[in-house]
Design a protein that fits this description.
The structure holds 2 protein chains of 2 kinds.
Chain A lengths: L27 H14 L7 E5 L7 H4 L3 E4 L5 H11 L4 E7 H7 L1 H10 L4 E6 L34 H8 L3 E6 L3 H12 L5 E6 L15 H11 E3 L15 E8 L5 H13 L6
Parallel strand pairs in A: 1-2, 1-3, 3-4, 4-6, 5-6, 7-8
Antiparallel strand pairs in A: 5-8
Chain B lengths: L2 H4 L7 E2 L4 E5 L9 H5 L5 E3 L11 E3 L10 H5 L5 E5 L6 E2 L4
Antiparallel strand pairs in B: 1-6, 2-5, 3-4
The chains are: A alpha/beta, B alpha+beta.
The complex binds thiamine diphosphate, iron/sulfur cluster (SF4) (3 copies) and magnesium ion.
């Protein structure tokens, strides 16, 4: 064994911010790890990359990635990213945020960015609750799950995020767990090479807050659940991909081409400036 | 991804044996155990040592068993472990069927 201080991805991380604050066994670090791995394999220029996060544990990603990054207000990561992308379509704009941030307070931004096909890439770390604020129930909490606000078991039907994204018009939709590091990295690479709105959901362990109330006290126990429950099926019907304690369907669900909003916008501006459009 | 996996050795007369070097940044480890549990070759185990973060980081059981799949590197949430392929001292002739 050799002791070494420099990890191969260290240049992609802000050294002053590492080690990160995430709990032992938290999946957020794996999401960041796979994201960096995808950037490295694609040899992406960090000067052309913008990482945008909202508020939450996973929202701290913006501070850890050594790119131009923005830690925005709660729920507004996609709104902010839209502005960046429209102002400068040359930039690769990636939103990395949580289930609460993107689908509760930020839900409207998500569906309309997908509908308009704005070329931002969204990665959601879905840990089934609001980790940062103490584990409240959120829009992806499974039925019957225990959280601090559903101590007798959740009675709200959760969103099936891949179905939501596909129905709203996303051009790429995939779901993996933090155990599927290879395929997750592959999916992130794929989405980074696409033009339109793309969405990757990562089922991620929050052992410290969600797991401990649901008989999975450690990250390992949560990962064991993912291993037991997940099955890989590519291009299956996303409407049938609801997550239950018995079954987590993972895979790619959508991969289509569609012209992006920013391309149409800048084309339109060009036509107006050349007076090809008059009214 | 290691060279060895990127280029399939079939058809080559000489094949390089994987020669791994597992690096553990002990004080960055939070002791989640993912690398130990999910290593396909059981290269790692929990050590008795207590690191700066108050947990038991992994230690190497048998480095020669490592196939450089890099799963440990990818699954570590804390960027505390990585594997590199050491240059081979010599290439070994193998027989193809
Ligand atoms: C406008 C506003 N409302 C509420 C909050 C409190 N708040 C902070 S993080 C959070 C939820 C985070 O959940 P999620 O996005 O799933 O991230 P996680 O912590 O689970 O990674 C909430 C409600 C806030 N910061 N701002
Ligand atoms: S509270 Fe949950 S999501 Fe937040 S850092 Fe801890 S394990 Fe991760
Ligand atoms: S590279 Fe693969 S075989 Fe080697 S220690 Fe890591 S997980 Fe085990
Ligand atoms: S995966 Fe990383 S943090 Fe977890 S035990 Fe291994 S080295 Fe430590
Ligand atoms: Mg969450």
């Amino acid at each position: 064994m050799v002791q070494e201080v420099s990890h191969p991805f260290s240049s992609y991380l802000r050294s002053a911010m590492i080690p990160h604050i995430w709990c032992s066994g938290c999946g957020n670090g794996i999401v960041l790890n796979c994201f960096i791995h995808a950037l490295e394999e694609l040899q992406r220029d960090l000067d052309k990359l913008v990482v945008v996060s909202g508020i939450g544990c996973i929202g701290r990603t913006a501070g850890y990635a050594n790119a131009d990054s923005f830690h925005t207000t709660h729920g507004r990561a996609i709104a902010f990213a839209t502005g960046v992308k429209l102002a400068n379509p040359e930039l690769e704009v990636v939103v990395i945020s949580g289930d609460g941030d993107l689908f509760a307070i930020g839900g409207n931004h998500f569906i309309h960015a997908a509908r308009r096909n704005i070329g931002v890439k969204v990665i959601c770390a879905n840990n089934f609750n609001y980790g940062m604020t103490g584990g409240q129930q959120g829009p992806t909490t499974p039925l019957e799950a225990s959280t601090t606000t559903t101590p007798y078991g959740n009675i709200e039907h959760p969103f099936n995020l891949v179905h939501l994204a596909a129905a709203a018009g996303a051009t790429y939709v995939a779901r993996w767990t933090t155990l599927h590091v290879r395929r997750l990295t592959q999916s992130i690479k794929r989405m980074l090479q696409k033009e339109g709105f793309c969405f990757v959901e990562v089922i991620s362990p929050c052992p410290e807050i969600f797991g401990r109330r649901n008989k999975m006290r450690t990250g390992l126990e949560m990962m064991e659940w993912f291993r037991r429950a997940s099955s890989v099926e590519n291009f299956s019907d996303p409407s049938k991909a609801e997550i239950t304690s018995k079954r987590i369907l993972v895979g790619e669900f959508v991969n289509v081409e569609k012209v992006s909003y920013e391309r149409l916008l800048h084309e339109k501006i060009g036509q107006i400036n050349e007076k090809k459009i008059v009214w | 991804m290691p060279e060895r996996i990127r280029h399939a050795p079939l058809g080559n007369k000489k094949v390089k044996q994987p020669n791994a070097e597992v690096h553990i940044i002990t004080d960055q480890c939070k002791g989640c155990g993912f690398c130990i549990k999910f290593c396909p070759k059981k290269v790692l185990e929990e050590s008795q040592e207590i690191n700066a973060r108050g947990v038991h980081p992994p230690k190497i059981l048998d480095e020669s068993k490592c196939i450089i799949c890099s799963f440990c590197t990818a699954v570590c949430p804390d960027f505390a472990i990585f594997v590199v392929e050491k240059p081979c001292k010599e290439e070994r002739h193998i027989k193809h069927d």
